[in-house]
Every structure is written in C-alpha cells, then in structure tokens.
Amino acid sequence: MDKIRVGTSGFSFQSWKGAAYPSNIKASEMFSYYVDNFRFDTVEINYTYYRLPVARTLEALVRKSPKDFDFTVKLYGGITHEPWQHSPPTQVDKEMCRRFLEGIKPLVESGKLGCLLAQFPSSFRSSAESWRYLLSLPELLGGNPMVYEFRNKEWMSEETVKTLERMGIGFCVVDEPQVGSLMPLFPVVTSNVAYLRLHGRNRDWFNDPSHRYDYLYSEQELKGLLPIIDTLASQENVLYIQFNNCHAGSAVQNAKMLRALLEIDLPPIQGKLL
Predict the structure, then answer these.
(1) Phi and psi of 94, rounded to 5°?
(2) Count of beta carbons in the 10 Å neighbourhood of residue 182
(3) Positive or negative CA dihedral for 185, 121, 108, 191?
(4) Sign of the alpha-carbon torsion through 237, 72, 216, 175
(5) pLDDT at residue 236 above 90?
(6) Does this model's pTM top 0.70?
(7) CATH pick for 4-261 out of 3.20.20.410, 2.60.120.260, 3.40.50.720, 3.40.50.1370
C-alpha cells in the first residue's frame, strides 16, 4: 500500500471551517493543518484551473510540506476548456503553457510534482482534432508526467487506452454520477501514474452545478471501491486517489475513511494542532 496516496482536490475552502477545520482558522494556516492533522501525503492543487499558478505561492507550499509529500496539479482551464468553446483550435497556446510551467517550477525543482491533471469538459468529444491537441500537450508542458480526465463516455474505448499507453499518458479513472454523457467507472492504467478521482454521486450534476460535489460517500460505498483500488495499485505505478466531493468537508471525511479501510491512516502530529 506504500504506492497509494490519498488526499483531496484542494485544501482551502470556506465551507471546511467548522466542518473539517477549526471555525477560526486562517487561510494561511489551512495547509499546515491539512498536513499535520489529517496526515494526508498528497493534495491536488485545483485553483490552477481558474488562474495560472504563481511560483511564489507553490514555493511556500513546498516549504511547508513534509519530505514524503507531493502535489498533483490541475491544468489551467485556458488550456483545457476555453479553446474548445467555439471551433476546434488549430494548436495549443505555447505561451500559456510556458507561463504555466513557470508557475509550477518550484514543484518540479523540488521533486514534489506527482503529475499534471488535464481535465476536459463533457463537450470535448473524440475526433482527429482532439487527438492532435492531446498528443501535443506533453511536450509543451515540459515532459512532466500527465494524466487526462475525460468527462464524456465517448472516450471509454480501446483506442483511448492504447493511444495513451503508447504515449505514456495516464488515464484518470473517475467515480461520478451515471447521468447524461458522464464517464462510467472505467478502471484502467495507461502509464506509471494511476489516478482515481472521486466526484461523488450527486445525480443533480447537470441540473444544479452549484451543488455538484455535495455528496458524502458511505463506508459501504467506499468498501465497494476497494477491489478497483487493488487493481489500479497492482501494477508498477503510484496510485493517486483524490476526493473532489469538497462541499462542507466531505472530501476530508471520506479520504480519512478510505485511508482507514486501506490501513494507511495516521494519527495527528501531537503538539501541532490549532
């Protein structure tokens, strides 16, 4: 189980105050509390989807993180989403990729970058243009380990698996509600980085996006995922399991629950609690 890393998709949420964090915690104290109290060994940096990363911000996180801690980083939406809102782009924005790489430099140089997560919208369909875009990204992003998350079940195909295997790009396995075009649970590993992202099973996904991630897994539901986790972790790879059901601290509760089921949970570091 030493190859399995369990954490959450982000750590700085107002709704976690009084639920997962002390109600009076400052934003500047949240990451240290995440590390010292929850004892997670990874976190998915999610704000980088909304704005380009800033090197000094990530450098501060590196300084605060333990030796065996690492980060996965979500790719900027200006690279994964915005280009596809109208007609397919002719190429990837090289300058935007350069700026993204500049921002994550502290993670790369410290050896604490687990991988980059490129998540594409449900409107992103399988096509020749899409594949050209997907296959050009890794080189423009410095050859760092990459994982692709698809939100449309069209991508659940042998072509997807074989192409990603050939390119050494990871496939993000997702657990999400089975509504509309969303991806089913498709447990495959296509690179030396396996990734499981748990979004919850709120069936109002499309009807009420503001509460999309408002879901708490039961212990029985997490136990049902253990055979899949065992399959994903059985190869010579690291497995990241990131909970994205972040509403009101549910992700923390479920990550701790799963770590206990996997027998890898740790008690808080004494003397460091707020």
Answers:
(1) -65, -40
(2) 17
(3) positive
(4) negative
(5) no
(6) yes
(7) 3.20.20.410
